[in-house]
Amino acid sequence: MDDNELHLSPPAQMLPQRMESGGPYRLLHCSGLGDKEGVMQELEKGVEPNLVDYDKRTALHLAASEGCEEIVVLLLEKGADVNSTDRWGRTPLSDARNFGHENVCKILEAHDGYDPLGDSDTPCFMIGHGEVDMKDATLIGEGAYGEVYLVKWRGTEVAAKTIRASIASNPMVKNAFMKELALWQKLRHPNIVQFLGVLKQSDRLIFLTEYLRNGSLYDQLRKKGRLDPLTAVAYALDIARGMNYLHQHKPHSIIHRDLTPRNVLQDEAGHLKVTDFGLSKIAQQKDSYGYKMTGGTGSCTEYY
Ligand SMILES: Nc1ncnc2c1ncn2[C@@H]1O[C@H](COP(=O)(O)OP(=O)(O)OP(=O)(O)O)[C@@H](O)[C@H]1O
Question: What is the average per-residue pLDDT within 235-247?
Fold first, then answer.
C-alpha cells in the first residue's frame, strides 16, 4: 500500500468523534503525517519550530523518520535545528538513515546534519529502579507474559508491563526480549504505542510504554458492542497507518501476525495505536527455550 494513500485525511464529516491534535503539538502531529498545510499553519501562528515532545523529539525528527521531504525542507527553512538530539541521542539524520529515507538524508547532510550514532546498534534505554515506585502501581490488566500496571515515571502516567520472573529469569529468553524491545524502541509513529525504556530490575523484566487511558479496542467492543460505520472507518484508518508504518520499516519490514483488538489501544483523544509486536516472536521459539508462553490470543509476530 502506498504510504501517501494512508496519509490522506478522510473527509471531515467522516470523523465526527475524532479530536484535532490541538495546541502547539499539532506542529509535531502534522510533521509526522506529512501535512504541509498543517505545518505551515502552525509555523505561521508562531509555534517554535524546535518545539519538543516528552522524548525531546522535534518536528524535524518526525518528518525525517517518515521521509517527508517537503516538510524537512520547510522546517529547515524556518529555522529547525538540524542536529537537535532526542532522549536517545538521535538526530533527525539518525532517524532518516534508520528508515532508509535517502533523499531526506541528502537534504539533512547538505545542511550539515550529522548522525552521532553512526551505524551502531542502540541498546534499550534503561530506567533507574528508583524512578518508578512499583509499590504505588495500579493493576490495569494481565496478559500472557505478566501483568500491566499504571505507574508514574518522572511525573507522567505510563504503563509498566511486567514479564514474569519464571520467564525472564532465563538469560536467553531475557536477551531475546531485550533485542525485540531495542527494535520497538526505534519505532515512532502516532499509531504505534511508544516504547519508553526498561526498568533496571534483577529478577523480573519490566518495561515502560506510553499509557493509553481508554484501554484496548477489545475492552471497548465488549462494553459498547458494534461500532457505527464512521467510527469503524476512522479506527480502520488508524490501524492501517500503524501497520503500514511497520511494513515500510527499513531495512526490514515488521510483520504483525497477531493484529487483534487486544493489541490495539486507544488514547484519550480517540486515536488507536497498535502494540505488542516482536515479543510474541519469542513465544514462537518457546520450544528451544523450554518455556510455554501461550496467551489467550496466541500471538505471533515476526520481523523479516
Ligand atoms: N500501554 C497500555 N495502556 C493502557 N492499558 C494497557 C496498556 N498495555 C496493556 N494494557 C491493558 O492491559 C491488558 C493486558 O495487556 P497485555 O498486552 O499484557 O495482554 P493482552 O494483549 O490483553 O493479551 P496477550 O498477552 O495474551 O496478547 C490489555 O488488555 C489492556 O487493557
Answer: 95
